[in-house]
Amino acid sequence: MIAGRIQEGTMKFASNSNEVAIVREQMRQSVPEFLLESLLYRELLDTEAARLGKAAGDTAELLRQFYVDTATFGLDRWERFCGIPVQPTKPLDQRRAVIKSKLRGIGTVTADVIRSVAESYSNGEVSVQEFASQYKIVITFIGKMGIPPNLEDLQASLRALIPAHLSIEYEYTYLSWANLDKLLLSWNDFDDLKLTWAQTEVFDYRLPIVRSSIGLTMAEQ
Fold first, then answer.
1. Does 69 fall in a domain?
2. Number of structural domains found in the chain
3. pLDDT at position 140, please?
4. CA atoms within 13 A on the CB side of 217
């Protein structure tokens, strides 16, 4: 197969930046050397290599549409398949979260299913508590601080998933003074972080703080 090969059941393609070069080299190695002495033949080979390289790239891009985590233009089809509105103006990660939550929500509704759906939106750990006598479910976001950016999508998805006689409450995690004290930072240290009050509220005290010659900085999440 030109510009691709089957290895352990997986089709692997070269990256877009060098697909044409790989195809050209494969084609050059498959013909007698004396043909490459012809300028006309080399130009013909280069032209065909460019076309085949593009075809390989298009094929690889098409394959990515078969998986929610890598799909781009194919998300429209995933949304229609899941019976949810097509929203091309929304960020790709939020559209993927809605699709994955719909797929995870198929079947019997249990606490594990609810947790799986909620975590697909928040990209972090979620706690699900059931209060049967109160006909209530409490969902607490503990893996990420603050309110998830696509909370409305999450609420709509869970409301469609969870039986109507059960109410749903959401709890969010914010930075407490007790957790701030655990960092053992002076006020000057904290000033080095250059956080606004809104950023301070959702500051994840569990992440390491990097000390350097320019002061304190937060590690990447």
1. no
2. 3
3. 92
4. 7
**Would 184 be classed as within a structural domain?**
yes
| 89 three-state secondary structure | coil
- Per the confidence metrics, is the pTM higher than 0.85? no
Q: What is the DSSP string of 36-72?
A: GG-HHHHHHHHHHHHHHHHHHHHHHHHHHTTSTTT-S
In angstroms, the CA 112 to CA 103 distance is 14
Range of the domain at 60: 4-64
Element (H, E) at 93: helix 92-104
48 shares its domain with 93: no
pLDDT reported for residue 169: 93
Residue that wins the pLDDT comparison between 142 and 188:
142
Do 79 and 161 fall into the same domain?
Answer: yes
Q: Are strands 209-212 and 215-218 parallel, antiparallel or unpaired?
A: antiparallel
Do 112 and 164 belong to one domain? Answer: yes
Contact 170, 139 (CB under 8 A): yes
Angstrom CA distances, 72 to 63, 91, 95, 98, stand at 11, 10, 10, 14
- Both tokens assigned to 215: 């002061």
Q: What are phi and psi of 170, to 5 degrees?
A: -120, 135
- Residue carrying the six token digits 């960092």: 183
In total, the chain counts a number of residues equal to 221
